[in-house]
Design a protein that fits this description.
seven-stranded mixed β-sheet; four-stranded antiparallel β-sheet
């Protein structure tokens, strides 16, 4: 069965950096766009970043643009989220997701919608102290 497993979360002081990893199995990884979402207690799930099948297109949530970078290594079946200049507002549970649809071939909002993704990982906690 399809599994997405996140790692790399933890505790960091404001201004610090973390890199999250998402290892996929049970699917043809290069045929799936990947995304990262996050959710903090009492808040809605928020789109963080997305990357196309080949990695040639990316998109970011407004709150993280310029600080976070999404990437992928198809040979390792892994997607990454590099997080720099972390702020307390970045504290959340971060999950990766995979989409087998052409989500980067439509409108701007398509890869930013959670319902466009077919599979989800269990997530990893990121806590940023002030």
């Amino acid at each position: 069965q399809v599994q997405l497993v996140e790692s790399g979360g933890g505790w960091v002081q404001a201004g610090g950096s973390l890199r999250l990893s998402c290892v996929a199995s049970g699917l043809t990884f290069e045929n799936y766009a990947m995304g990262w979402f996050r959710q903090a207690p009492g808040k809605e799930r928020e789109f963080v970043a997305g990357i196309s099948w080949k990695g040639d297109r990316t998109t970011y949530g407004d709150s993280v643009k310029g600080r976070f970078t999404i990437s992928r290594d198809n040979a390792k079946n892994t997607a990454y989220l590099e997080m720099n200049s972390l702020e307390p507002e970045d504290t959340a549970f971060y999950s990766c997701a995979a989409s087998g649809r052409s989500i980067f071939h439509g409108d701007y909002d398509t890869p930013r919608r959670g319902r466009e993704y077919d599979y989800w990982g269990q997530g990893t906690q990121v806590t940023v102290s002030s």
